[in-house]
């Protein structure tokens, strides 16, 4: 066991504070990672404040982890000391179900193990990336290509793959009109990835405040959803809409923007239920769907894709003592576009 410094929420809705946690000794197939950077995801806030249901405390959030391998177990074949690596939203899965065998560990029917706020197969709670080090089975560790700076790579482990997976699954690419709802930590990655895939990209945001950024990152069009004319003008024109917002939307209004056989895919998860008139999907054979993160194989594919196209996330680097302030700023949509903790400051 190794004792490491970390920032944890001692109880639901309590401010995060500096503490120490125990990391397990390196087992046969384990990789010990010196964490260099950890992204702050909106889901960290949902979980630390029990917005998604009962949680485990003390909680060390963080599932956007980038660092350097400092030790490997004797059975490890995929990584060696000094490698640049990442860890995303899961650190284990059953490995036996059809989904795991298909590389869809994120939908493991036997139950995957979250990077934090979960219980590992050893019965111990998992602690996330707001810490100095982490020990992870090699099968759930990603290689970060040289083409991406480590601090800009950290948010790709959740925000990046959360957008890449549905964009690939619903065939975003040349000839497709794709809209991203929300221009935040997730949304800005959606714009970059959809553009790099070759799609015609539209941003649907509450206001035009971030229009200049959106166009710079690869959007072809930018509309304010607060303007009723937007929904008139875009009616029936889009092939795919990916919603990244965690506030409830008027789903019928967004479904009306789709062409026949179009899809509205939700990756943002509101804490409260939403309602829908089913005629919104029946007319036009439309799909209302959801998507989680990606599996390990697809996450590696995403990292390689981002490196090949020369981009990571747009980040604001902070020190650990700014985490609580960063949480409030995320809730106020006051970040462009992802806070990343410099873990050397823990």
Structural account:
The chain is an alpha/beta fold and 346 residues long. It has helices at residues 42-48, 98-101, 150-153, 159-169, 185-197, 211-217, 228-233, 251-255, 279-282, 296-308, 323-331; strands at 2-8, 17-23, 30-39, 65-72, 84-87, 90-92, 113-114, 133-137, 142-143, 177-181, 200-205, 221-224, 238-243, 258-266, 287-290, 315-318, 338-342. The strands form four sheets. Strands 3, 4, 5, 8, 9, 16 and 17 form a seven-stranded mixed beta sheet that branches. A six-stranded parallel beta sheet has the order 12-11-10-13-14-15, with helices on one face. The chain has a two-stranded antiparallel sheet with strand order 1-2. Helix 4 packs across helix 5 and helix 4 (159-169) crosses helix 10 (296-308). The chain is globular, with a radius of gyration of 20 Å. The model has no long low-confidence stretch (mean pLDDT 97).
Low-confidence spans = none
Strand content: 25-35%
- Percent of residues in helices comes to 10-25%
How many helix segments?
Answer: 11
What is the approximate shape? globular
Short recap of the structure:
With 346 residues, the protein is α/β, with parallel strands linked by helices.
List the helices and strands and how they pair.
Elements (H helix, E strand, L loop, with lengths): L1 E7 L8 E7 L6 E10 L2 H7 L16 E8 L11 E4 L2 E3 L5 H4 L11 E2 L18 E5 L4 E2 L6 H4 L5 H11 L7 E5 L3 H13 L2 E6 L5 H7 L3 E4 L3 H6 L4 E6 L7 H5 L2 E9 L12 H4 L4 E4 L5 H13 L6 E4 L4 H9 L6 E5 L4
Parallel strand pairs: 10-11, 10-13, 11-12, 13-14, 14-15, 16-17
Antiparallel strand pairs: 1-2, 3-4, 3-8, 3-17, 4-5, 5-9, 6-7
Helix pairs in contact: 4-5, 4-10
């Amino acid at each position: 066991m190794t004792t490491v410094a970390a920032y944890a929420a001692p109880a639901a809705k309590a401010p995060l504070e500096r503490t120490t946690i125990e990391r397990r000794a390196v087992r046969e197939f384990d990789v010990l990672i010196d964490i260099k950077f950890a992204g702050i995801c909106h889901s960290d806030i949902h979980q630390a404040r029990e917005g998604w249901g009962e949680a485990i405390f003390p909680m060390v959030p963080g599932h956007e982890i980038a660092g350097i391998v400092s030790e490997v177990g004797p059975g490890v074949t995929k990584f060696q000391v000094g490698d640049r690596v990442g860890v995303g939203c899961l650190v284990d899965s059953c490995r036996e179900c059809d989904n795991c065998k298909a590389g869809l560990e994120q939908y493991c029917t036997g139950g995957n193990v979250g990077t934090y706020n979960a219980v590992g197969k050893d019965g111990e709670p998992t602690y996330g990336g707001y810490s100095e080090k982490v020990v992870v089975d090699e099968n759930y560790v990603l290689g970060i290509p040289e083409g991406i700076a480590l601090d800009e790579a950290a948010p790709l482990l959740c925000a990046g793959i959360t957008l890449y997976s549905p964009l690939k699954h619903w065939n975003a690419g040349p000839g497709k009109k794709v809209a991203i709802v929300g221009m935040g930590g997730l949304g800005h990655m959606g714009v970059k990835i959809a553009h790099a895939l070759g799609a015609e990209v539209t941003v649907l945001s509450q206001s035009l405040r971030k229009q200049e950024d959106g166009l710079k990152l690869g959007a072809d069009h930018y509309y304010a959803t607060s303007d009723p004319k937007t929904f008139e003008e875009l009616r029936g024109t889009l092939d795919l809409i990916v919603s990244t917002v965690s506030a409830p939307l008027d789903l019928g209004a967004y479904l009306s923007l789709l062409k026949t056989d179009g899809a509205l895919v939700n990756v943002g998860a509101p804490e409260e239920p939403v309602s829908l008139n089913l005629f919104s999907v029946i007319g036009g054979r439309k799909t209302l769907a959801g998507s989680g993160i990606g599996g390990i194989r697809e996450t590696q594919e995403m990292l390689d894709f981002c490196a090949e196209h020369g981009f990571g996330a747009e980040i604001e680097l902070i020190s650990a003592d700014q985490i609580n302030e960063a949480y409030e700023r995320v809730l106020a949509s006051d970040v462009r576009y992802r806070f990343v903790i410099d873990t050397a400051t823990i």
